[in-house]
Amino acid sequence: MTAHGPQRIVCLTEDPTEILCALGEEDRIVGISAYTVRPPGIEKRKPVVSAFTGGSVSKIQALDPDLVIGFSDVQADLAARLIRAHLPVLILNQRSLEEILETVMMIGLLVNQRERATALVEHYRSLLETTRKRAGGRELRPRVYFEEWFDPPLSAIQWVSELIEVAGGVNIFADRAPGKAALERKVSLDEVVARDPEVLIGCWCGKPFDPQQVRERPGFENVTAVRNQRLHEMDPAIILQPGPAAITAGLPVLEKLLHP
């Protein structure tokens, strides 16, 4: 690693790839995750070395990285294998919007791009504030159930819960959102019925959302979102990555779903 920061970076998730490219530092990236779609075409320019929970240590070693960036306890086993292979590993765990912005700044400092990182963070804050002001001018704030998975049902992670509020909605399971582990955000179908969401958003990773399956759940015929046909699907790629895309791509879609 030089005085200008790491020169050969492997990114085990999309968010550091997106951030590095936004900072103008794509040339430092030598390996990416299979789920990376942002910026467009990056998957054709960089070798894929990992999925989400696993990856090839030998492929990563062969790239001679001076830094590997991963995300959360979900990648703990892979991170441990890489550390045992004597590679430098940075595991981040951003869960809130503020932590996402802090991650942009941290990566910017790592690659000697303080000014660009500061400008990016200011831009993202401006997008959030502009949306928040629009929401403040609306009389109605619909109750929202955001479902990340269906078996068991998992409610929105913290940054998604915060985006729902920014977009002018109320996450009916905001009390579960701070949970670090996915099962801390587990809900029961009876709880969903009792909290009666006016908008239901399905965002199932790895599987298309099935609104008919939702309609057929016990008691869901009485849920306002079902009765008013406000069952929507969101692409996980634009909102479930803990990076800028949740703000730049996910938030505008979320706002339109809540306030058509």
Task: Describe it.
The chain is α/β, with parallel strands linked by helices and 260 residues long. It has a five-stranded parallel beta sheet, with helices on both faces. Strands 6, 7, 8, 9 and 10 form a five-stranded mixed beta sheet that branches. Helix 5 packs antiparallel against helix 6, helix 6 runs parallel beside helix 12 and helix 7 packs across helix 12. The longest helix is centred in the middle third of the chain and has 23 residues. The protein starts with 8 loop residues before the first strand and ends with a helix.
Tell me, what's the shape?
globular
How helix-rich are the residues, as a percent range? 40-55%
Low-confidence parts: none
Q: Largest sheet, if any?
A: 5 strands, parallel
Question: In whole angstroms, how far apart are the ends?
Answer: 49 Å
Class by helix and strand content? alpha/beta
Quaternary structure state of the chains depicted: single chain
Strand numbers in spatial order across the main sheet: 3-2-1-4-5
User: Approximately how much beta-strand content do the residues carry?
Assistant: 15-25%
Counting DSSP H or I runs of 4 or more residues, the number of helices is: 12
Order of helices and strands: EHEHEHEHEHHEEHEHEHHEHH
Radius of gyration: 19 Å
Mean pLDDT: 95
Q: Count every beta strand, where a strand is a DSSP E run of 2 or more residues.
A: 10
